[in-house]
Amino acid sequence: MIEYAALKFNVASIPMSENPKKVIVGMSGGVDSSVSAWLLQQQGYQVEGLFMKNWEEDDGEEYCTAAADLADAQAVCDKLGIELHTVNFAAEYWDNVFELFLEEYKAGRTPNPDILCNKEIKFKAFLEFAAEDLGADYIATGHYVRRADVNGKSRLLRGLDGNKDQSYFLYTLGHEQIAQSLFPVGELEKPQVRKIAEDLGLVTAKKKDSTGICFIGERKFRDFLGRYLPAQPGKIITVDGDEIGEHQGLMYHTLGQRKGLGIGGTKDGSEDPWYVVDKDVENNVLIVAQGHEHPRLMSVGLIAQQLHWVDREPFTGTLRCTVKTRYRQTDIPCTINALDDDRIEVIFDESVAAVTPGQSAVFYSGEVCLGGGIIEQRLPLTV
Question: Quick one: where's region Interaction with target base in tRNA (predicted)?
Fold first, then answer.
């Protein structure tokens, strides 16, 4: 066992537990939750783990990683000497996450299931189960975010590792949920987390990060989605109205997409690749243009709805801040104008490519995540 005092990083954001508090760590079978459990042990918490099974569909060994993930989570808990509980939230996931996911794709939008999963499962169903059934004082996850208590309210901050910061996915949390949650790896960089796991001899030390749909795994997306929504082939046309191909379903494509269009060649001598710039849902038409900076791909702003502000106070008036319209995007300076209680207009300082309805716009003031909303429509550079 390595010496905690010898670690060369700051864990000041993990509150010390002078009187042992019970914390339930969401053990995914990955390295981040594994190290989170150990860090909390070092801070004096009474630590137990919880493995959540949230998907019942069995697609065979190629995609069904739940059993292997549970085995890894159990091995880590055994190594750390902590109890591992299991719970099945498959019904909650289907009703509150997956059905909406399908509805959004059916409507031609591109949803982000990870954000809804965090809201409905990890920080609602899990939080309630941990508190009510397991007697937890806190829950903890392996998310790369930080928390800070300011004027009696818990705020959500970006993770220290800019490459792994996951605040974009957690903007739907309120300060009450943040106050009941601990994020031990938020003050660390990913290589440090892996080094700790290696030094501890954890089986998850070199396990690759998951990149699939939340709790569903790394399936071939087109095949998976086609099992639940019937494909509706249609025309691919250029911004000039020329028909140049056929798509297999609008749901398989998103704004800014380049690969997988099944079209090639050039137009008017241009060798620039084709990009999706719009969807005509009513007529089932995919619209494309050449070049990643084509004017039809650019937006000067957006309209967002289904707003959530971390401090729960409705936004009114005008606000200067920054925004991300997708994960890992560089912050975009912007001005927010309130339209009504649940809709805002966001104007970018500079035009932005591939603003996608159905995705989330998440707002920041420096390190603090202010909240966000669902992109209802983009405000195009050209009409």
Answer: 112-114
214 classed as catalytic: yes
Q: Kindly report, residue by residue over 249-282, the tens digit of the pLDDT.
A: 999 899 999 988 888 655 565 678 999 999 999 9
All domains of the chain in start order, with CATH: 4-221 (3.40.50.620), 231-292 (2.30.30.280), 296-380 (2.40.30.10)
- Of 88, 77, 70, 171, the C-alpha closest to 129 is 88
Res. 312: pLDDT tops 80: no
Task: List the binding residues for ATP.
Answer: 26-33, 52, 142
Taken in order 331, 334, 281, 343, is the CA torsion positive or negative? positive
Distance CA 279, CA 294 (A): 15
Question: 51-60, 194-203, 280-289, 342-351: which range is least confident on average?
Answer: 51-60
Instruction: Give 182: exposed, middle or buried? Use CB within 10 Å, 0-12, 13-18, 19+.
Output: buried
**What value, to the nearest 5°, has the Cα angle with vertex 377 and ends 282 and 124?**
105
Point out the catalytic residue in the list 77, 117, 334, 369. Answer: 117
pTM (global) more than 0.70: yes
